[in-house]
Design brief:
- The structure holds two protein chains of two kinds.
- Chain A is an alpha/beta fold.
- Chain A has two domains: about 150 residues, P-loop containing nucleotide triphosphate hydrolases (Rossmann fold, 3-Layer(aba) Sandwich); about 70 residues, no CATH class.
- Chain A is about 35% helix and about 25% strand.
- Chain A contains eight helices and nine strands.
- In chain A, the strands form two sheets. In chain A, strands 5-6-7-3-8-9 form a six-stranded mixed beta sheet, sandwiched between helices.
- In chain A, strand 6, helix 5 and strand 7 form a beta-alpha-beta unit.
- Chain B has a single domain, classed as ABC transporter involved in vitamin B12 uptake, BtuC.
- In chain B, helix 4 crosses helix 10.
- Chains A and B meet through helix 2 of A and helix 8, helix 9 and helix 12 of B.
- Bound molecules: adenosine-5'-triphosphate and magnesium ion.
- Magnesium ion binds next to helix 1 of chain A.
C-alpha cells in the first residue's frame, strides 16, 4: 500500500528553488534512505513531508493516516543543550499533539511511553536530566519521543551523526528492529554504504536531477559516481 | 506583632500584597519560557514601550492602562515577528525599540506635565499607590495566566523545548507564541505600576534563572521559579514597609540575593569531592 506520494514537488526558500519536480512514493514497510550532499535539500524535504514547509508547488498525499502521525527525529541542534528537562518529560512531549488539557498525560500515553523507553533500553535513564546525557543517549531519547508521535512512519534526519562507532551500530540495530516490526522508515544519511545495507529503497537528491529506486537498482546505476564527478 | 496587625488594617497594604503576589507569579512563569527561548530581553523592551505609552497617556489625560495595553501588545507581536523573520536580529530590534520608546516618553513627559511624581512612579514603581481597580486587574491577569499555564502545560512544554517538533505533531505553535506575547505584554504593563518600568523585566528573568541553577526538570523549574518569585516579592515588601526602602528596587535586590545563593549551591554541588 502506498503511504506517501510526492508529485512534482518543488520547494523554495525565498525565491530560490531547493529542488525541483521531485517524484517518489513510499510504500508501507519501506526503509527508504535519502542521500545527497550538504545543502541538497534532504532536511527541507522532510520538513515538507511534516507540513512545516512554507512555499511549494506540487502535491504531497498521505494514504491511510494523517501527517500528524509521523514521528520525526530532527537533525541535531544546539538549542536544547542546557534545557532543564528530564528524560520522561522529553519523551512524553511526543504525545503533545494529541495531548490533553492539564499537566498529566493520559494513562495510555504514559504506559506506551514506558514501553518504548524499555524497548530502547532507556528505562534506567527516565529520571535523568536530558542535558546530562551523552550524545548517543540523547539521540535515543529523541528517537523514543519520535516513536510516541509515530503510528506508522518514522522520519530520521541523520540519526547517527556525531556518535561513536558502537553507539552508531546500536542505533542502526534499533532502527532495523523497528522496521522489522512494521514501521515505515525514511532516513537521511551520509554514510552510503552503511545505509544501503538495511535500506530497501534509495532517494538520492543530486544537483540537477534525482534518483529514486530500489537499493539494487541504485547500486547498479551510475548515479553515485556521476554526482561525485559533478561535485569535483 | 501589633505593627503587622496595624499594617494589614490599611487597605493599600492588602492591595499591594494581593496584586504583587499575582504579578510576581505571572512574571516568573512567563520568564521560564522567555529565558529558555533566549528571548528574555523581550520583557525589558516591552517595559520601555509601556513607559513611553504611559507618558503619552498621562500627557493626553487618558488612563494609562487603556493606551499602554494595546500598544505594548502590538510591540510584542512586532518584536516576535521581526526576531523570527526580519533581517535585524531580535536583540538588536529590541534595543532599538526599547530606547526609542523611552526617549519618546521622556520628551513627551518633559514638554507636557514635567517629570512629576506620576511619571517617576511609572519609572520606579509605586506599589503602595495601587488602587482597588489596579489590584483587581493584577489579580485577574494572574489567575488567567495560571489557569492557561496549567491547562496548556503539555503544549507549552513542547513548544518551549522544540518548536519545530511540536508543530510537526500538530501543536498550534503560532497560537501559543501569540498567547505568550499577549500575556507578557499584559504582565509588563500591569507590573510596571508596582515595580517600575526600569525594574519589571528583572522579576521576569531572575526567578527562572535562579531556579535553573538547582533544578533539572522542567516541572520543578516552573514550580521553583514561582515560589522564589513570590518569596522575593514578600521579603522585598517587608524591607519596603519596615525599613522604608523603595519596594521595586528591594524586590530586585532580594531576587539578586537568591540568585547568588543558588549559584553558590550549584557551584558547591558540582565541585568534585576531593576528600
Ligand atoms: N531557513 C532557511 N532559509 C533559507 N534557506 C534555507 C533555509 N534552510 C535551508 N536553506 C537552504 O536550502 C538548501 C537545502 O538545505 P537543507 O537543510 O535541506 O540541506 P540538507 O540536504 O539537509 O543538508 P545537510 O546535509 O547539510 O543537512 C540549502 O542551500 C540551504 O542554504
Ligand atoms: Mg539536513
Amino acid at each position: 500500500m502506498t503511504q506517501i506520494r510526492v508529485e512534482n514537488l518543488t520547494a523554495y526558500y525565498e525565491k530560490n528553488a531547493v529542488f525541483e519536480n521531485l517524484n517518489f512514493t513510499v510504500e508501507q514497510g519501506d526503509y527508504l534512505v535519502i542521500l545527497g550532499e550538504n545543502g541538497s535539500g534532504k532536511t527541507t524535504l522532510m520538513r515538507y513531508l511534516l507540513g512545516l514547509g512554507i512555499r511549494f508547488t506540487g502535491k504531497i498525499s498521505y494514504n491511510g493516516f494523517s501527517r500528524r502521525q509521523i514521528g520525526w527525529l530532527p537533525q541535531r541542534t544546539e538549542t536544547q543543550k542546557d534545557f532543564p528537562a528530564d528524560v520522561s518529560e522529553v519523551v512524553l512531549s511526543g504525545f503533545s499533539g494529541k495531548g490533553t488539557l492539564g499537566i498529566r498525560y493520559r494513562k495510555e500515553s504514559r504506559k506506551q511511553a514506558a514501553a518504548y523507553l524499555k524497548a530502547l533500553g532507556l528505562s534506567d535513564l527516565k529520571n535523568r536530566s536530558f542535558r546530562e546525557l551523552s550524545g548517543g543517549q540523547q539521540q535515543r531519547v529523541l528517537l523514543c519521543r519520535a516513536l510516541c508521535a509515530a503510528d506508522r512512519v518514522l522520519l530520521l534526519d541523520e540519526p547517527v551523526a556525531g556518535l561513536d562507532a558502537p553507539s552508531q551500530n546500536e542505533l542502526y540495530e534499533t532502527i532495523r528492529q523497528l522496521h522489522r516490526q512494521g514501521m515505515t522508515i525514511l532516513m537521511i544519511s551520509h554514510e552510503i554504504d552503511r545505509a544501503l545495507q538495511d535500506a530497501t529503497r534509495v532517494l538520492h537528491l543530486g544537483k540537477e536531477d534525482f534518483f529514486f529506486g530500489s537499493s539494487e537498482e541504485y547500486r547498479e546505476s551510475d548515479f553515485q559516481s556521476r554526482t561525485k564527478e559533478e561535485g569535483s | 506583632m501589633t505593627a503587622i496587625r496595624e499594617l494589614f488594617s490599611y487597605s493599600f497594604v492588602i492591595y499591594a500584597l494581593l496584586g504583587g503576589v499575582g504579578i510576581a507569579l505571572c512574571a516568573s512563569l512567563l520568564g521560564v519560557h522567555l529565558v529558555l527561548k533566549r528571548f528574555s530581553m523581550l520583557g525589558d523592551g516591552l517595559s520601555h514601550v509601556a513607559f513611553g505609552s504611559a507618558a503619552i497617556a498621562l500627557a493626553a489625560g487618558v488612563a494609562p492602562l487603556k493606551i499602554s495595553i494595546p500598544v505594548v501588545i502590538l510591540a510584542a507581536f512586532l518584536l516576535l515577528h521581526v526576531s523570527r523573520n526580519g533581517k535585524i536580529r531580535g536583540d538588536a530590534a529590541i534595543a532599538l525599540v526599547s530606547s526609542s520608546a523611552l526617549a519618546i516618553g521622556v520628551i513627551v513627559a518633559t514638554l507636557t506635565t514635567g517629570m512629576n511624581t506620576d511619571i517617576s512612579s511609572y519609572m520606579f514603581g509605586s506599589i503602595l499607590a495601587m488602587s482597588r481597580s489596579d489590584t483587581v486587574i493584577a489579580v485577574s491577569v494572574a489567575v488567567g495566566i495560571l489557569l492557561l499555564y496549567v491547562l496548556f502545560y503539555q503544549k507549552l512544554f513542547a513548544t518551549t523545548f522544540d518548536e519545530d517538533f511540536a508543530a510537526a505533531v500538530g501543536v498550534r505553535v503560532e497560537g501559543y507564541r501569540s498567547l505568550l506575547a499577549v500575556l507578557t505584554a499584559v504582565t509588563v504593563v500591569v507590573g510596571m505600576r508596582m515595580m517600575g518600568a526600569l525594574l519589571i523585566s528583572s522579576i521576569i528573568t531572575f526567578p527562572a534563572l535562579s531556579a535553573m541553577r538547582v533544578c533539572k526538570r522542567y516541572r520543578t523549574v516552573v514550580i521553583t521559579a514561582g515560589i522564589l518569585s513570590v518569596v522575593a516579592f514578600l521579603i522585598g515588601m517587608a524591607f519596603s514597609l519596615f525599613l522604608d526602602m523603595p519596594a521595586g528596587a528591594s524586590i530586585v535586590v532580594v531576587n539578586l540575593g537568591l540568585f547568588l545563593a543558588l549559584s553558590a549551591v550549584e557551584f558547591l554541588k558540582k565541585r568534585p569531592n576531593l576528600s
